[in-house]
Amino acid sequence: MTLANQPQTPILPLENGDRLTRAEFEQRYHAMPKHIKAELIEAKVYMASPVRARKHSKPHAAVMTWLGSYWQGTPGIELMDNPTVRLDADNEPQPDACLRIESIAGGQSRISDDDYIEGAPELIVEVAASTASYDLYDKKQVYRRNGVQEYLVWRVMDEAFDWFVLQKGAYINLPVDKDGIMRSRVFPGLWLPVVDLLTLNLAAVIAGLNLGLASKEYQAFRQSLAAKLSTDGK
Questions:
Q1: What SS3 class is residue 138?
Q2: Same domain for 43 and 149?
Q3: What is the pLDDT of residues 146-182, one digit of tens each?
Q4: Total domain count for the chain?
Q5: Which residues, 6+ apart, have CB-to-CB distance to 188 below 8 Å?
Q6: What is the mean pLDDT of residues 136-150?
Q7: Single pTM value for the model
Q8: Domain range spanning residue 133?
């Protein structure tokens, strides 16, 4: 039998707990059925469980509504839903949402030729069941180490929301102001009335965001992004 006629080695399916390189993970992931979701965290494969309607899908939709409202009026940024993110040789997560500044506007991540995010988006959101989730352990450390500037975790079962900000190489908790609002330090104007989000009062969430969008800080940020885009286009 010639070398050309030798049978091809079959691509093995992904299994929860597999230890793989990122290249091996991508090869197997691409061969899986399209509805399968998997992540590589510290060289270990995590397969997603079935998505609960009110404990995950609905909170996820609320987050996307909030972030989408910020995205639609802000030039030079992109909102992604469940994107694959190539962080390093051992980590390729697929977060619930991420907000990134485009590279042409000075962002720290880029879109690869094969249409994946490479590098750390500025902001990542995960919808987690509780404090027991690996989102608050291994994945949190991966995001910190790779320079994700803000990491948000909605712990649905705990009825709590964590907003971590990267400061001197460590995550600190973003404080809630006297009006019950959390304010992004990376994306000026991205304000969150956290109790309203937890109770799915979306009208109040958007009202709080609109206050941020009317702030001087947001207007200056928006103008700076527009100026970078204009300069790049010349």
A1: helix
A2: no
A3: 999 999 999 999 999 999 999 999 999 999 999 999 9
A4: 2
A5: 212, 215, 217, 218, 220, 221
A6: 95
A7: 0.89
A8: 51-232
